[in-house]
Amino acid sequence: MSIVNDIRTAFSRRDNALNQLLLINVLVFVFLVLTKAVMHLSGTVAYYPNVLRQFELPSDMPSLLRHPWTLLTYAFTHEGPFHILFNLLNLYWFGALIREYLGDRRLVSLYILGALAGATLFLLAFNLIPTLRPYAAAGVPLLGASAAVTAIIMAAATLLPDYTFMLFLLGAVRIKYIAAVVILLSVLAINQGNPGGGIAHIGGALVGFLFVKQLQAGRDLGRPVQAVGDFFVRLVTGRPNLRVTHRSASAAPAAPVVKKGAPTLPGQDEIDLILDKISHSGYESLSKEEKQKLFRASQK
Q1: Taking Cα atoms as reference points, which of 57, 59, 60 lies closest to residue 71?
Q2: Where is the DUF6576 domain positioned along the sequence (predicted)?
């Protein structure tokens, strides 16, 4: 079937992380919808919660110990069509920015770290805060990509705070304000019947902010995630590790002379002009050189 071939092609490409994340979420959603439909027709829908329990993150520790994989699978699991729609739209919009500026591997790392941070804060809150312990006792679970997506939104806002999106009815809005609204809604959710989701979103937002700040300081928080991913890729594909050899100092070539045209870090005035251009004409109006300058400035 062409659909199967398209999915296989999407996962075979190494520069397709955003579409792969979107596809995993869609495939899990379709699987659960079809499973529930089949169980409903066969009269076994009463057992569907047992199926869902293999994906959602439980709030009580005994259940988590029996289902440790749910620390990640919950972030790819949705039940309602609007829930997955809003998450995937945000993932597509903001993930495209992270992918363009930081690359595919860092996008995946950020998604995974955001999911783990959301899960960790959720579990700590439900098991340590007295007013939330009844939720854990009742077995209230967590599911959805919101924590991971919030990490990506906050990372994009931290990296490019003045980048603008054209929003329906609102016009051009800078993403730093979008991120602020997302945080505010997460805090409101804690008081309005969804404390688990709100707390998980805040955990993801913290990771998104720290991820970019540490990256700008020269530290990549995503390297452990990338190392684990590389290990499993080698395990599945059988590819050997790449070995890097270092020459001795005596055999090392002379240091290359820096060319006059070598790229230098742009000044603040240049960056301000570029950001003003984005706010007036959008990111697509930038030249390739301006995009590169903005990227180099984000690494300072």
Answers
A1: 57
A2: 268-300
